[in-house]
Design a protein that fits this description.
The protein is an alpha+beta fold. The chain is 17% helix and 35% strand. The chain has helices at 73-84, 91-96, and strands spanning 10-11, 14-15, 22-26, 38-46, 51-59, 62-70. β4 and β5 (51-59) form a beta hairpin.
Amino acid sequence: MELRKHPLMSYRGRPNWPPRWVWLGGKQNERPTGEVGVLKQVSRYSLLTSDGLSLVIEYNDSAYMGLLLFDNFAFSRRIHELLKTLRDRPISAIGDLDISDEP
């Protein structure tokens, strides 16, 4: 199953992929949407009721950040480990990845 379609890629019943992108700086804010740019950084954080990842992408000479919130803590950690290996890959290619239901 593609990462973008996996049922655990969600928060409170809503799909979390692709995240909304917020401009961090660079040439100009193009307000990108969807599966754009190249993954540059991924990091974890935890909230009381959910687990999350922050992604930083590069798109047209600018940096953007997106947040992925998850209800499933174990799945969030699994996606974090996967994304750490995919730096410098296009976000669209990451969404295409076939991820199994196996841990």
